[in-house]
Amino acid sequence: MSTFPDRGDKKQVEEGLGFTPKFDSDGLMPAMAIDATTKEPLMLAYMNAESLQLTLEKGEAVYWSRSRQEIWHKGATSGHVQKIQEIRTDCDQDAIILYVEQIGAGACHTGRSGCFYRKINAASGEMSFVEDGKAFDPESVYGKA
Amino acid sequence: MSTFPDRGDKKQVEEGLGFTPKFDSDGLMPAMAIDATTKEPLMLAYMNAESLQLTLEKGEAVYWSRSRQEIWHKGATSGHVQKIQEIRTDCDQDAIILYVEQIGAGACHTGRSGCFYRKINAASGEMSFVEDGKAFDPESVYGKA
């Protein structure tokens, strides 16, 4: 159940200053976490109304895990919490950007600083690593590879 | 119908160099466009397999419009195309980042350089403008406000 106000008309949504987030048919919206200092994108995950509310209350990123179907306070296991520096929404208020201070060595469960560590070669369809080395050992942090 | 290869196991998806994108139950994945020079996030939209393939072929951002339910070659109306500098995917290959050169004054249909022009005050739930002025006049570009 959303605790956010009802949305007004298109003009209010796009030009107003009331935060009236819109969730999709699954009750979710995408949230991109970006390192507030380096501007490097860290990860893209999803929030439902409850996790968005918790994010605002705690000042730390709280997502909705689609795979586990549960509230996911990022860093609860690894210690790699994301401290919110600034939250933005877009014109139609159905997407979120979190500018965060990433605590610990990285945001990605593979051990890298962020999840977007591969770029795509459009001609070949193959990828190459942008960030090859791992920032931390996922096995020691999460107890599994 | 996806023209991309079948996905392998988790290790191949996360550590491999074959691009095997995963679309959600609606056949879509989120794509964040970021200004390649300034690192400012421009917009978040969605791609289906066809629009992703077209993006790779054209070297310009092609999205799927959820509201119009059609392929959306960004800039076809406004001239504000997004020339791809680099495309990245994330660990589980279900999200895309486009680093782009934004042609024209801006990416947002409201007339701003990007869509994320408001930040949220967590305590009050109110927002304030990060980017107040408009970069272009949407009426003159799109023919409507």
Report on the architecture of this protein.
Two copies of one chain form a homodimer. Chain A is an alpha+beta fold and 145 residues long. Chain A is built from three helices and eight strands; from the N terminus they run αββαββββββα. Chain A has helices at residues 10-15, 49-58, 138-142; strands spanning 29-35, 41-47, 62-65, 70-73, 82-89, 96-102, 118-120, 127-129. In chain A, strands 2-1-6-5 form a four-stranded mixed sheet. In chain A, strands 3-4 form a two-stranded antiparallel sheet. Chain A is globular and about 50 Å long. β7 of chain A pairs antiparallel with β5 (82-89) of chain B, so a sheet runs across the interface.
TL;DR of this structure?
Chain A has 145 residues and is an alpha+beta fold.
Keywords:
homodimer, 145 residues, four-stranded mixed β-sheet, 3 helices, 14% helix, globular
Shape of chain A: globular
C-alpha termini separation of chain A: 35 Å
Radius of gyration of chain A: 17 Å
The largest contact between protein chains, plus residue counts on each side, is:
A-B, 43 and 43 residues
Beta-strand level of the residues of chain A, as a percent range? 25-35%
Oligomer: homodimer
Number of DSSP strand runs of chain A: 8
| Helix share bin of chain A | 10-25%
For the residues shown, what is the average pLDDT of chain A? 92
Specify the number of helices of chain A: 3
